[in-house]
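Notes from hallway chat w/ T.B., transcribed later so I don't forget. T.B. wanted the structure written out for a chain they're using in a teaching module, and asked if we could keep both sequence and structure tokens in one place. Agreed to drop them here.
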Amino acid sequence: MHHRISLKAVHAFEAAARLSSFALAAEELFVTPSAVSHQIKLLEEQFGVCLFHRVHRAVVLTDAGRRYAEEISAAFARIDMATRELGCTAKSDILTIHSTPSFAMQWLMPRLARFSAANQDIDVRLNATHPPPADLLLQGVDVEIRYGTGRTLPSDTLVLPFPAETIVPLCSPVLLEGDYPIRSPSDLCHHTLIHSEASLFKWRDWLEQHRKLKLDISRGPRFDRSFMIISAAVDGLGVCLESLLLAQRELETGRLVAPLGLDGQKVQSYTLNLLRSRAELPKINSFQQWLFEELNQGTDETVRPPRRGRKPFRA
């Protein structure tokens, strides 16, 4: 049988049991001692169990009352803890983002401070695990930034494509100082090519656009992450074929240059994925708007051209 009880009566019982006094319980609850006594009597009558021994003006828990008090006290302690934790977190909302590692490291991390400054009521949790778990958006992730295609998304998923990226050869400015400076595509035959094993646009695709060139694309180091490819190019390991979007910091600081210019193949690679049913949540809506505003600022206009006074080759 399901017993519906009064929370007011339970609260009165918990206070009286903890303080061993109806009077002190009444003082704590801002009621009269008779009101506390009345509520406890209602519990005893409802369950047919004596909860207190009344000894003159004192009250002592019965065995049944003691067992009930232990459970009730534990429950009230959990409620109190949950309430304190809610008070600590209620002022902020947590936005959980899952991103591919390279986009997270090369583009998103350097800009998160701007998002946080503009949205001080949102705390960001950024995950960049690989491979990501299945049904990511159904496992506590608010938005997912994905490269290419692959896993099946939930039917309720809203897929928002990023603006197309520009892919061009990039290298350390040190390579422009050697015996074989890079002034035209044919000069690449004197340099090591750094390969991506996961990119949607590889050196083989680039050569399709430069059919007269004879480059050995069978040699050279290979990496499966753009952040490693960019780092290798910065270290002077060779020439990489990478996204201006991801290499923007390195181009702005001069650690990388685009020896053949900033015009290149446009590739639509990344998407922002979120559940339609959650799209209007303030934290998700704010991040979506901020992200695309940042992306739409572009990269070709913000990166600096190669140094050393050379005019870059433009195909």
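Follow-up for T.B.: Residues 68 and 195 are 69 Å apart (CA to CA). Might be a good example for the class.
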